[in-house]
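Supplementary notes for students who missed Thursday's class. We covered one full example, reproduced here. Read the sequence, then the structure, then the short commentary at the end.
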Amino acid sequence: MADPVFDPTDPTWLAHRYDRASDRILYRHVPRAMHGEGPFLTDELVGDRPQHIGSRSDAVAAARAQVAPVHFLFHSAFCGSTVLARAIDLPDYAMALSEPVLLNDIVGIRRRGEMAGPEIARLLDDALLLLARRWGPDETVVLKPSNIVAGLMGPMLALRPDARALLLYAPLPDFLASVARKGLWCRLWVRELLEGMLRERLVDLGFEPNDYFRLSDLQVAAVGWIAQHRLFATLAAAHPGRVFTLSSDRLMADPARALGALARRGFIPESAAAAGLLDANPAFRRHSKDGRDFSPEARALERAAADAAHGDEIAKVHDWARAVAASAGVALDLPAALLD
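Structure (token representation):
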């Protein structure tokens, strides 16, 4: 079968990577159905798909004719964000893009100091335009970036003044339990995440640089969570009526109600609710990473297993983190709740 013909206005041609040296965009052809085959839009999912490489200026000029309303799903990891993104994939109503790597490329350029602030802003604006190409006549696009994009949340909202954002987070004990349960790779990942936040000067909790070397893995995870929580609270305060917060336990307890609230706030057209598409959404009965059946009871069993194996460490780090947050003036309950 011949490769599909490239069309810069067609959103199935995902704007996947940015090459700064040549100022070009690498596209991968990713049909809508393929978005549900993996948790994230990484090379592991799309790396062998048909590709096209074109100039950034040409890409942006073509995309302007096919832009949908765009909103954001920011998250603190291990909070059901991938499940929620899949639930938002409602043909004819809304499409969610899960962790597009194009945004990660911009974070890397910013951290390495390869572009000045105004250049970064223009590149980010172009990336949002390319990722918001319309899938259907009345569809919105919801972008769920990786949480390494934390430092760009404010600029993204500033560049899209009509956009709304949901800040989804796991309660701190649940977040710590997930890190402990997932093992070595996750303990390394939270260190990498905190390192990036430190490089971007997003952490101000009273620690000296050498203090971080003395922290356990779960303490590092807690510091990153608190720093991101502060960012979330700042965003919610700065954008009343545009930015909403939701905890993973509230989402999983009543996903239909959460989806309905998102529809009322414009993330999803309210006509989706009228069509009955927000009730009993199948995404909440499948594991977000491997697609297997995953009921609320199965989630509870996973948490119980983590508590049995790591409960003492989780409890001690939770108490320590609460003291750190209180000392830094960071409230553990966020304002602007999506659900009453």
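Commentary. The CA atoms of residues 107 and 210 lie 25 Å apart. Residues 296-328 form the longest helix (33 residues). If anything here is unclear, bring it to office hours.
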